[in-house]
Amino acid sequence: MTTENTIFKLIEIEYHDENPQYPEFEVCRRQIGYFSSLANAEQAMKNSIERNEHGREEPPFGYFIEEYALDKPSYWFAECIRSYLHDGAFLDETLASDLPDKNGDLEEFFGRPPEKVRFASGDLVETLHGETVTLNIVTHVPFSPEEVREMHERREKKHGAGFRMQLDASDDAYRTIEPDDADDNDTHCHPRGITLFPLRFPVSAELQKKCAEAYLMQMLSYKK
Protein backbone atom coordinates (compact mmCIF):
# COMPACT_ATOMS: atom_id res chain seq x y z
CA MET A 1 0.00 0.00 0.00
CA THR A 2 1.35 3.39 -0.94
CA THR A 3 0.51 6.81 0.47
CA GLU A 4 2.58 8.76 -2.08
CA ASN A 5 0.89 10.78 -4.82
CA THR A 6 -2.65 9.91 -3.81
CA ILE A 7 -5.94 11.75 -3.45
CA PHE A 8 -8.61 11.24 -0.79
CA LYS A 9 -12.34 11.01 -1.48
CA LEU A 10 -14.72 11.71 1.42
CA ILE A 11 -18.12 10.00 1.37
CA GLU A 12 -20.94 10.50 3.85
CA ILE A 13 -23.38 7.63 4.31
CA GLU A 14 -26.89 8.86 5.11
CA TYR A 15 -30.04 7.05 6.14
CA HIS A 16 -32.56 6.55 3.34
CA ASP A 17 -35.30 4.96 5.45
CA GLU A 18 -37.25 7.26 7.76
CA ASN A 19 -37.41 4.59 10.46
CA PRO A 20 -34.32 2.39 10.12
CA GLN A 21 -34.49 -0.86 12.07
CA TYR A 22 -33.20 -4.42 11.92
CA PRO A 23 -32.95 -6.82 10.24
CA GLU A 24 -32.44 -4.50 7.24
CA PHE A 25 -32.60 -0.85 6.21
CA GLU A 26 -31.46 1.35 3.35
CA VAL A 27 -28.82 4.08 3.23
CA CYS A 28 -27.39 6.29 0.49
CA ARG A 29 -23.94 7.70 -0.19
CA ARG A 30 -23.16 11.38 -0.69
CA GLN A 31 -19.79 12.49 -2.01
CA ILE A 32 -18.48 15.47 -0.05
CA GLY A 33 -15.28 16.11 -1.99
CA TYR A 34 -11.67 15.26 -2.87
CA PHE A 35 -8.70 16.25 -0.70
CA SER A 36 -4.94 16.33 -1.00
CA SER A 37 -4.25 14.59 2.31
CA LEU A 38 -5.91 12.28 4.82
CA ALA A 39 -5.72 15.02 7.45
CA ASN A 40 -7.63 17.44 5.20
CA ALA A 41 -10.28 14.81 4.45
CA GLU A 42 -10.72 14.05 8.14
CA GLN A 43 -11.01 17.77 8.93
CA ALA A 44 -13.72 18.12 6.25
CA MET A 45 -15.51 15.18 7.87
CA LYS A 46 -15.37 16.90 11.27
CA ASN A 47 -16.70 20.11 9.72
CA SER A 48 -19.57 18.17 8.14
CA ILE A 49 -20.39 16.57 11.50
CA GLU A 50 -20.49 19.99 13.19
CA ARG A 51 -22.85 21.34 10.52
CA ASN A 52 -25.06 18.26 10.86
CA GLU A 53 -25.28 18.73 14.63
CA HIS A 54 -26.67 22.23 14.13
CA GLY A 55 -28.95 21.57 11.18
CA ARG A 56 -30.08 17.95 11.31
CA GLU A 57 -31.97 15.92 13.90
CA GLU A 58 -30.49 12.58 12.78
CA PRO A 59 -26.73 12.04 12.48
CA PRO A 60 -25.41 10.24 9.39
CA PHE A 61 -24.79 6.49 9.35
CA GLY A 62 -21.03 6.92 8.93
CA TYR A 63 -18.22 7.91 6.58
CA PHE A 64 -15.69 6.43 4.16
CA ILE A 65 -12.43 8.00 3.08
CA GLU A 66 -11.18 6.31 -0.08
CA GLU A 67 -7.55 6.81 -1.14
CA TYR A 68 -6.72 6.64 -4.87
CA ALA A 69 -3.42 6.73 -6.72
CA LEU A 70 -2.81 9.67 -9.07
CA ASP A 71 -1.25 9.51 -12.52
CA LYS A 72 -2.02 5.84 -13.06
CA PRO A 73 -5.13 3.95 -14.29
CA SER A 74 -6.84 3.03 -11.02
CA TYR A 75 -10.42 2.61 -12.30
CA TRP A 76 -12.43 1.87 -9.13
CA PHE A 77 -9.49 0.26 -7.27
CA ALA A 78 -8.49 2.03 -4.08
CA GLU A 79 -5.10 2.07 -2.41
CA CYS A 80 -6.85 2.16 0.95
CA ILE A 81 -10.38 2.63 2.30
CA ARG A 82 -11.02 3.85 5.84
CA SER A 83 -14.36 3.69 7.66
CA TYR A 84 -15.60 6.01 10.40
CA LEU A 85 -18.58 6.10 12.74
CA HIS A 86 -21.25 8.82 12.60
CA ASP A 87 -19.29 10.94 15.09
CA GLY A 88 -16.05 10.75 13.09
CA ALA A 89 -14.42 8.08 15.26
CA PHE A 90 -12.06 5.88 13.24
CA LEU A 91 -13.38 2.34 12.79
CA ASP A 92 -11.28 0.31 10.35
CA GLU A 93 -9.10 0.36 7.23
CA THR A 94 -8.00 -2.00 4.48
CA LEU A 95 -4.46 -3.33 4.88
CA ALA A 96 -3.65 -4.20 1.25
CA SER A 97 -4.23 -2.22 -1.93
CA ASP A 98 -6.92 -3.24 -4.43
CA LEU A 99 -4.81 -1.79 -7.25
CA PRO A 100 -2.61 -4.24 -9.22
CA ASP A 101 0.99 -3.22 -9.90
CA LYS A 102 2.41 -2.76 -13.41
CA ASN A 103 2.82 -6.54 -13.73
CA GLY A 104 -0.80 -7.16 -12.79
CA ASP A 105 0.08 -8.55 -9.36
CA LEU A 106 -1.88 -7.60 -6.26
CA GLU A 107 -0.29 -6.50 -3.00
CA GLU A 108 0.12 -9.45 -0.68
CA PHE A 109 -1.99 -9.75 2.48
CA PHE A 110 0.09 -11.02 5.41
CA GLY A 111 -2.70 -11.27 7.98
CA ARG A 112 -4.60 -8.86 10.21
CA PRO A 113 -2.97 -8.19 13.60
CA PRO A 114 -5.21 -8.90 16.61
CA GLU A 115 -5.29 -5.21 17.61
CA LYS A 116 -6.86 -4.41 14.23
CA VAL A 117 -9.66 -6.98 14.56
CA ARG A 118 -12.73 -5.01 15.68
CA PHE A 119 -15.20 -7.86 16.18
CA ALA A 120 -15.20 -11.42 17.49
CA SER A 121 -16.97 -14.64 16.59
CA GLY A 122 -20.56 -14.46 17.85
CA ASP A 123 -20.83 -10.67 17.68
CA LEU A 124 -23.90 -9.10 16.12
CA VAL A 125 -22.93 -6.42 13.60
CA GLU A 126 -24.31 -4.18 10.88
CA THR A 127 -22.98 -5.07 7.43
CA LEU A 128 -23.12 -2.54 4.62
CA HIS A 129 -23.82 -4.17 1.23
CA GLY A 130 -23.93 -1.41 -1.36
CA GLU A 131 -26.73 0.78 0.01
CA THR A 132 -28.35 -1.86 2.20
CA VAL A 133 -27.45 -2.47 5.85
CA THR A 134 -28.24 -5.92 7.26
CA LEU A 135 -28.02 -7.44 10.71
CA ASN A 136 -25.30 -10.12 10.61
CA ILE A 137 -23.58 -12.53 12.99
CA VAL A 138 -19.79 -12.89 12.85
CA THR A 139 -18.68 -16.53 12.65
CA HIS A 140 -14.99 -16.07 11.79
CA VAL A 141 -12.53 -13.18 11.84
CA PRO A 142 -9.79 -12.39 9.27
CA PHE A 143 -6.64 -14.53 9.18
CA SER A 144 -4.00 -13.44 11.67
CA PRO A 145 -0.30 -13.12 10.69
CA GLU A 146 0.38 -16.37 12.56
CA GLU A 147 -2.38 -18.20 10.67
CA VAL A 148 -1.05 -16.91 7.34
CA ARG A 149 2.47 -18.09 8.21
CA GLU A 150 1.10 -21.52 9.11
CA MET A 151 -0.77 -21.68 5.79
CA HIS A 152 2.47 -20.91 3.92
CA GLU A 153 4.36 -23.55 5.91
CA ARG A 154 1.73 -26.24 5.25
CA ARG A 155 1.75 -25.49 1.52
CA GLU A 156 5.54 -25.53 1.27
CA LYS A 157 5.69 -28.76 3.27
CA LYS A 158 3.24 -30.34 0.84
CA HIS A 159 4.50 -28.91 -2.47
CA GLY A 160 8.07 -27.87 -1.75
CA ALA A 161 9.99 -24.68 -1.03
CA GLY A 162 8.69 -21.60 -2.83
CA PHE A 163 5.09 -22.81 -3.14
CA ARG A 164 3.50 -20.19 -0.94
CA MET A 165 -0.11 -19.11 -0.64
CA GLN A 166 -0.67 -15.80 -2.45
CA LEU A 167 -3.23 -13.91 -0.39
CA ASP A 168 -4.50 -10.43 -1.37
CA ALA A 169 -6.97 -7.79 -0.20
CA SER A 170 -9.95 -10.07 -0.86
CA ASP A 171 -8.67 -12.46 1.83
CA ASP A 172 -8.77 -9.75 4.49
CA ALA A 173 -12.39 -10.47 5.39
CA TYR A 174 -14.74 -11.67 8.08
CA ARG A 175 -17.21 -14.53 7.65
CA THR A 176 -20.79 -13.64 8.55
CA ILE A 177 -24.31 -15.05 8.37
CA GLU A 178 -27.83 -13.58 8.65
CA PRO A 179 -30.47 -14.39 11.31
CA ASP A 180 -32.48 -16.53 8.85
CA ASP A 181 -29.50 -18.73 8.00
CA ALA A 182 -30.19 -21.34 10.71
CA ASP A 183 -31.79 -23.69 8.17
CA ASP A 184 -29.18 -23.17 5.43
CA ASN A 185 -25.68 -24.09 6.56
CA ASP A 186 -24.13 -23.15 3.21
CA THR A 187 -25.28 -19.52 3.34
CA HIS A 188 -22.64 -17.02 4.43
CA CYS A 189 -20.68 -14.07 3.09
CA HIS A 190 -17.18 -12.62 3.47
CA PRO A 191 -17.47 -8.85 4.05
CA ARG A 192 -14.45 -6.62 4.44
CA GLY A 193 -13.90 -5.10 7.85
CA ILE A 194 -14.60 -1.58 6.57
CA THR A 195 -18.22 -2.62 5.85
CA LEU A 196 -18.89 -3.89 9.38
CA PHE A 197 -20.29 -1.45 11.93
CA PRO A 198 -21.31 -1.90 15.59
CA LEU A 199 -25.00 -2.12 16.43
CA ARG A 200 -26.77 1.19 17.01
CA PHE A 201 -30.42 0.11 17.37
CA PRO A 202 -32.16 -2.33 19.74
CA VAL A 203 -32.42 -5.95 18.58
CA SER A 204 -35.78 -7.58 19.35
CA ALA A 205 -35.95 -10.73 21.46
CA GLU A 206 -37.21 -12.64 18.41
CA LEU A 207 -34.25 -11.53 16.29
CA GLN A 208 -31.79 -12.28 19.10
CA LYS A 209 -33.18 -15.84 19.27
CA LYS A 210 -32.85 -16.26 15.50
CA CYS A 211 -29.28 -14.98 15.62
CA ALA A 212 -28.34 -17.37 18.41
CA GLU A 213 -29.88 -20.34 16.57
CA ALA A 214 -28.22 -19.41 13.27
CA TYR A 215 -24.82 -19.01 14.95
CA LEU A 216 -25.11 -22.36 16.74
CA MET A 217 -26.16 -24.21 13.57
CA GLN A 218 -23.37 -22.63 11.53
CA MET A 219 -20.65 -23.41 14.07
CA LEU A 220 -21.83 -27.01 14.52
CA SER A 221 -21.91 -27.48 10.75
CA TYR A 222 -18.48 -25.87 10.32
CA LYS A 223 -16.90 -28.32 12.77
CA LYS A 224 -18.23 -31.43 11.00
What does this structure look like?
By secondary structure, this protein is an alpha+beta fold. The chain has one domain. The chain is built from three helices and nine strands; from the N terminus they run ββαβββββαββα. Strands 1, 2, 3, 4, 5, 6, 7, 8 and 9 form a nine-stranded antiparallel beta sheet that branches. A hairpin with a 2-residue loop joins strand 6 and strand 7. The two termini are 38 Å apart. 28% of the residues are buried.
> Overall mean pLDDT score?
90
Query: What fraction, in percent, of the residue positions are helical?
Result: 10-25%
Biggest beta sheet summary:
9 strands, antiparallel
Category by helix and strand content: alpha+beta
Shape: flat
Count the E strands.
9
Radius of gyration, Cα only, in angstroms?
19 Å
Hey, roughly how much beta strand do the residues contain?
Answer: 25-35%
How are helices and strands ordered from N to C?
EEHEEEEEHEEH
C-alpha end-to-end distance: 38 Å
Low-confidence region ranges = none
Total count of helical runs of at least 4 residues: 3
The total number of structural domains is 1
